Amino acid sequence: MTLRVAVIGSGPAGIYTAEALVKQSAGPVEVDVLERLPTPYGLVRYGVAPDHTSIKSIAGYLRRVLELPEVRFLGGVTLGEHLSVEDLLRCYDAVVYATGAMVDRKLGIPGEDLPGSVAATDFVNWYCGHPDVDPSRFTLDSPEVAVIGVGNVAVDVVRVLAKTAEELSSTDVPHDVLERLADSQVKAIHMIGRRGPEHAKFTLKELRELGDLTNADVCVRPEEAVVLGADFPRQIRGNIEVLRSWSDREPVGRPRRLDVRFWLRPVEILGAERVEGLKLERTRLSEEGRVVGTGEFETLPVGMVLRSVGYQSVPLPGVPFSRETMTVPNEAGRVREREYVAGWLKRGPTGVIGTNKSDAAETVRTLLSDLSGPSGAGRPSASVDALLAERGVHPVTYAEWQAIEAAEAELARTLGRGERVKLVGLEAMLRACRP
User: Fold this and answer.
1) Which residue, of 3, 91, 277, 385, has the fewest CB within 10 Å?
2) Are 125 and 311 within 8 A, CB to CB?
3) Is 98 helix (H, G, I), strand (E, B) or coil?
């Protein structure tokens, strides 16, 4: 009996789950990877910075999984809109939820809802061409911008803000976005961390890239680069050394300036109709190791604030969800009978892209063990194809996704820009694959 499994989400977690099902299953298996967008790869396509081509190359590996004969891609299908959990359980032996962590955590301070105060993920989605974000979403008309957070996403954001449009022209940044980056009025970028350099979450490789910027002076205040103690892991020691070296630099007059700040926390975003400033409080660590304010304040005259203080998952219709952990409660990937979870939705936003591979393997081991009995497979009583057809839903096939890729490559050739330029918006993508 063929085991039929639906995987909800086509990012690394979902595609690694499909691969593990094919590799681990002792018998025949069919895996449908359902995705609400017409395009696969999740954060690899819409979260990795456009100038990080080596990381984006992982799409080649994910592509090979989608091309396995046991795996099928169904784009443009949304859980809760086109299919319910009950529908899925009628059509498949098991369902694996792998939709990731799609929204930023909020700061929880006054003024956070002012125009110009936005999640870093919105900005990342913008320059990555996500169809949920209009290309006109951002107008970079403020001379100063603040990015709250000192992780890799924050580093990506400030690097894109600091670079010239010419430096990004060979990447897949949508052309409308590139034109807005070319018109950017940003002169000063402030990257702000609540704790010290030893607590920063960026990797050494990402941090060093900032030091190679040719369009921006990178500045660190000597007093904020002071670190007490030396018993740190190698990665952290490397970060500290780089930041200390920058604190000795003198600006050389590049068009933009990047200030990397520590021991500051945002307490209020200022402005009447939109963001006009950011009030910060100097911080220190208490004896218990908590961040506490010192009562010393400063205000930055910024016109945009981008928060990058962590991701969190959102609930899926009909699927259990813990508001405390912002994950789907599970035991080794098992949610309840015939329902499973993988990736950030399972464990929270931790690890790197490759971490999802071992995570998916664990979930698949649980699933196959649960369904290994004689009555484990063969439960489906309905066809997902027939169900979607009845509802007027025509999923984007893998071949149609390839047509979108071909159109993006052709657009790049037309514009004289690199290997591909992303199409923007669902209509443009559907026109490319269904002319």
Assistant:
1) 385
2) no
3) coil
Q: Which residues lie below 8 Å from residue 366, measured CB to CB, with a gap of 6+?
A: 331, 332, 333, 334, 340
The predicted structure's pLDDT at residue 349: 83
Least Cα distance to 150 among 69, 224, 245 occurs for 224
> What whole-number distance in Å separates Cα of residue 157 and Cα of residue 273?
25
Do 256 and 189 touch, CB atoms closer than 8 A?
Answer: yes
Dihedral sign for Cα 363, 367, 368, 370, please. Answer: positive
- Assigned token pair, 23: 């590799």
Contacts of 374 (CB under 8 A, 6+ apart): none
Identity of residue 278: L
Average pLDDT score, the chain: 94
pTM of the full predicted structure? 0.92
Task: Tell me the two tokens of residue 73.
Answer: 């891609």
- Which residue has tokens 């970028």? 189
Is the pLDDT confidence value at 119 over 60?
A: yes
Contact of 101 with 312, CB cutoff 8 Å: yes
Distances (CA, A) of 250 to 11, 143, 161, 257: 43, 21, 21, 11
How confident is the model at residue 167, as a pLDDT?
96
The predicted structure's pLDDT at residue 219:
96
Read off the pLDDT of residues 264-307 as tens digits, 9 standing for 90 and up: 999 999 999 999 999 999 999 998 889 999 999 999 999 999 99
Q: Which 8-state DSSP code applies to residue 261? A: E
